[in-house]
């Protein structure tokens, strides 16, 4: 995990990442947070999975351009969207399936579906991974950097990240493994396998080089081959 929490790092052409604070989820599991900032062809900024707002982070983001879009990529990554809406009231916020019902306190300008929004379609493609009982995740592909962005469907933690019984669970769940993996709980939760398989095949068609994830170090070479390995449990059926 990155030690420079909150500091923007250039990840590729027109894409930056920033690591935020650790958050606590169900059963006391701690997760790091990460956001991505993509500068679109028109100069506007697309913020994926926004982390906590700080004055320093705002200043760095604003140095790149105008914040136009706030993206919650699944129904589990939404904690800080409201704070960014307050900071940038003119930015449009987009919700994945299921989040509007969960966060009725937030105002969303649109929904993430099976086609990219026209405003960013030139720069970013989109596939919604349907068929899961846990969450429906929108997976994005930034064309200029050849980067695919996963939120929770692919994770990778260092062995020392979790302690005690949580470390055992993390290993059994494949959150801790030799390389980034789809956790077993997500594999089990995909009860509609034909729908999920159709979604991942669209993703595998992208010319991916880099794989960016919210919970794990990025893959910076051979991304397409990696994705074929990561989703073999689904595509080989």
UniProtKB/TrEMBL annotation:
<dbReference type="InterPro" id="IPR025638">
    <property type="entry name" value="DUF4336"/>
</dbReference>
<dbReference type="Pfam" id="PF14234">
    <property type="entry name" value="DUF4336"/>
</dbReference>
<protein>
    <recommendedName>
        <fullName>DUF4336 domain-containing protein</fullName>
    </recommendedName>
</protein>
<dbReference type="InterPro" id="IPR036866">
    <property type="entry name" value="RibonucZ/Hydroxyglut_hydro"/>
</dbReference>
């Amino acid at each position: 995990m990155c030690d420079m929490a909150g500091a923007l790092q250039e990840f590729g052409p027109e894409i930056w990442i920033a690591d935020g604070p650790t958050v606590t989820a169900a059963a006391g599991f701690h997760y790091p947070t990460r956001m991505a900032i993509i500068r679109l062809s028109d100069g506007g900024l697309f913020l994926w999975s926004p982390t906590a707002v700080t004055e320093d982070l705002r200043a760095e983001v604003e140095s790149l351009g105008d914040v136009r879009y706030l993206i919650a990529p699944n129904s589990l990554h939404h904690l800080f969207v409201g704070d960014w809406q307050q900071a940038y009231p003119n930015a449009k916020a987009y919700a994945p399936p299921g989040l509007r019902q969960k966060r009725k306190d937030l105002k969303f300008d649109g929904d993430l579906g099976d086609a990219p929004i026209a405003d960013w379609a030139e720069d970013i493609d989109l596939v919604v991974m349907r068929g899961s009982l846990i969450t429906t995740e929108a997976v994005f592909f930034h064309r200029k950097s050849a980067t695919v962005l996963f939120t929770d469907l692919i994770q990778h933690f260092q062995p020392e990240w979790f302690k005690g019984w949580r470390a055992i669970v993390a290993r059994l769940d494949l959150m801790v493994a030799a390389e980034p993996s789809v956790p077993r709980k997500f594999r089990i939760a995909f009860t509609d396998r034909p729908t999920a398989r159709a979604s991942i095949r669209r993703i595998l068609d992208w010319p991916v080089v880099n794989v960016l994830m919210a919970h794990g170090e990025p893959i910076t070479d051979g991304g397409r081959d990696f994705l074929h390995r990561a989703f073999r449990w689904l595509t080989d059926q």
